């Protein structure tokens, strides 16, 4: 049995996976704040998962390894995560902290890259794939040849801070008009400036009612996502771009807006039309265990995906 954890800012999603890659059990637990609480949350999620597997009478065998997807930067070749600001973690060697507590090998990967790996495993589409995460920020993970493509320094797919409009809104990175400044949930909420539990949804609802500011923000979001899709296809030539993350809860409204932006660029350019971008975009189903599943697969790298 392999275990995968997707440690998010509010919850930890955990799955147990058998040797064939099938999900045996899934649990969700709250995530604590700060390094020590993150470690306790991970241990609690694993114990809950073990109990769930035992209660189901699944013939899973002993836990063999644990893979973890977590926000922030993961130093290549280590289990050390830095700048996981949404978890209150400045730096933490998560593998070193968890391995003695759980008595199995622990691997750590950036959460978006883990989700890319899991999305590819769940997809019926062969070939290469980019997973574009639309959440508080914007980032992508790329799967090619059945494995994650990290690039020379681990930054492959970091499209959020590509500037597409030098006169656009200021991004937290210091540039203007970054894809993330236009399409990131955090940037949209900040520019919207009105209280609400789901600011991006509120923006879309207000745009449907004709609110001028909301319409501008909504157009910018679609423009940013469409630009990210073009960048991923033009640089990595992936077969498919899968959209995931919290913003995809908008469903068809988001899909239609992005498709319209891609269609506009196709209308203006025979070259862009030849890429058939709209046909290469998919959306990850809501509630998908892609990130936790991908983490489980990352935890057993010798069993890399064979498709592609």
Automatic annotation (TrEMBL):
One protein family per Pfam: ROK
Cleavable signal peptide: none
Source organism superkingdom: Bacteria
Homology family: Belongs to the ROK (NagC/XylR) family.
Protein name: ROK family protein
Organism: Microbacterium lacus
């Amino acid at each position: 049995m392999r275990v995968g954890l997707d440690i998010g800012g509010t919850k930890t999603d955990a799955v147990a996976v058998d040797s064939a890659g099938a999900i045996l059990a899934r649990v969700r637990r709250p995530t604590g704040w700060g390094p020590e609480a993150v470690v306790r949350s991970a241990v609690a999620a694993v114990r809950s998962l073990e109990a769930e597997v035992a209660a189901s009478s699944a013939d899973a065998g002993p836990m063999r390894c644990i893979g973890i997807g977590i926000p922030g930067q993961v130093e290549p070749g280590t289990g050390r995560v830095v700048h996981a600001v949404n978890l209150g973690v400045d730096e933490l060697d998560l593998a070193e902290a968890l391995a003695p507590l759980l008595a199995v090998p622990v691997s750590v990967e950036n959460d978006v890259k883990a989700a890319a790996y899991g999305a590819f495993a769940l997809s019926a589409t062969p070939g290469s794939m980019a997973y574009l995460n639309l959440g508080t920020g914007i980032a992508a993970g790329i799967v090619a040849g059945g494995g994650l493509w990290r690039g020379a320094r681990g930054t492959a797919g970091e499209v959020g801070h590509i500037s597409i409009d030098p006169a656009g809104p200021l991004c937290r990175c210091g540039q203007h008009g970054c894809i993330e400044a236009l399409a990131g949930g955090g940037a949209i909420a900040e520019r919207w400036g009105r209280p609400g539990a789901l600011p991006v949804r509120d923006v879309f609802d207000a745009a449907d009612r004709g609110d001028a500011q909301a319409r501008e923000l909504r157009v910018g979001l679609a423009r940013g996502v469409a630009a990210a899709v073009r960048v991923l296809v033009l640089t990595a030539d992936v077969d498919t771009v899968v959209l995931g993350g919290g913003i995809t809860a908008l469903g068809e409204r988001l899909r239609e807006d992005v498709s319209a932006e891609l269609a506009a660029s196709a209308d203006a350019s025979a070259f862009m039309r030849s890429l058939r971008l709209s046909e290469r975009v998919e959306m990850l189903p809501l509630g998908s265990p892609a990130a936790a599943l991908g983490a489980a697969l990352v935890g057993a790298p010798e069993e890399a995906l064979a498709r592609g």
